[in-house]
Amino acid sequence: MKAVDGTPGFDAVILGAGFAGRLAALTLRQAGARVALVGMSDRPVRQAVHVHQLSPKAWDELSVLVPDLMDRLGVSGCTGPAQLSRATLDRLMQTCVEQASDIVRVPRVSEADRSGGQWLLRIQGEERLRADWLIDASGSARAGCKFLSSLSGQAVSLEDVEADFACKSWRVKGVAPSSGDKLVRATVMDGQCGILCQFLGNGRATLTLHGLPEALHAIEDPLTLAQSSDNDGLQNSFREAYLASGPYRWRGQWANRILLEESEAARFNWFALGDSLLTTPPILGWGLAQAIEQTALLARTGLAADIVPALDALAEPRMRQATVASFLRTSSLSRNAATHADTPSASMVGERAPAIQTCRS
After folding, report:
1. Strand intervals (E) in the chain
2. Most buried residue, 150, 170, 271, 356, by CB count within 10 Å?
3. pLDDT below 50 — which residues of the chain?
4. Architecture of 9-159+255-318 per CATH?
5. Strands 127-136, 9-15: parallel, antiparallel or unpaired by DSSP?
6. Beta pairing partners, 272
7. What pLDDT shows up at residue 361?
């Protein structure tokens, strides 16, 4: 799109420079779109405190969406999702965007309005830019929702699904090598709690307990629970282990998604990606896989009105999996649990857990 009255013009402005926003920017750029990415900074990438999961399908889609990223991952020694760490992924995604000189980086947007069928965004002082499309990848901040609500006078519709659960994560050292699995699940306390253990190598691991809040409230010694789990390999790995830091707590009471078909998206050329579109219990570890799935759909559909109902249809079944019962079933916490066909396989994305107090997918 061309500049109007000296105001720089873009095909799309993306709010949020996390994983979903960067992936969308790189994908649209590869398709020839002129893109501005809001929220870029040179600060170090925050590392994840919990496990993420990528299926082989998500890995293949990512390799198509950002070939340059896959080349960089190969140089770093990563040849598949089982070797991928979240810290490495975020760092290389940031590098890919920074070296894409045609992606315009914008610190923040302070105001959004509509003018002549386009978005008119104030970025600082009197400086503005125009865009045909506004993509909200701002995560739980959902900046686009706020802009739409202010323009239409009506709140953007959200669908709530009850998901009253909690999780606690610890960094652990002195862990004996596992049998080869980097991601191990087990159950404790007669099935009331699940354990998700991510082996990081060099005697390190991330240990996460998850279940109903009342079941986790009094637990402060996860190592004893791990040794009493229904997984023999987990018991043996933690006999000499000790806690390095934690616990890091997260509690979620609801999961919700934007009802795109009931918003002003079609009229305003707006849609959401990543956690901004769909917020699920983070311990499920589906956040990255969902962002890849949504962006692959964007790559096929393009910046067209069809993207709105397509994303809505993609998000809806995910919400059916967001309840505690579905969480316990689809994440295969016990060895005999049924695995949902749409659930990503147990390849992991994660690395060192920093001292942060939240866990988000």
Report:
1. 9-15, 35-38, 52-53, 103-106, 111-115, 118-124, 127-136, 158-173, 183-188, 193-201, 204-211, 242-258, 270-272, 278-279, 348-349
2. 271
3. 2, 44-45, 47-48, 282-283, 324, 327-361
4. 3-Layer(bba) Sandwich (3.50)
5. parallel
6. 136
7. 31
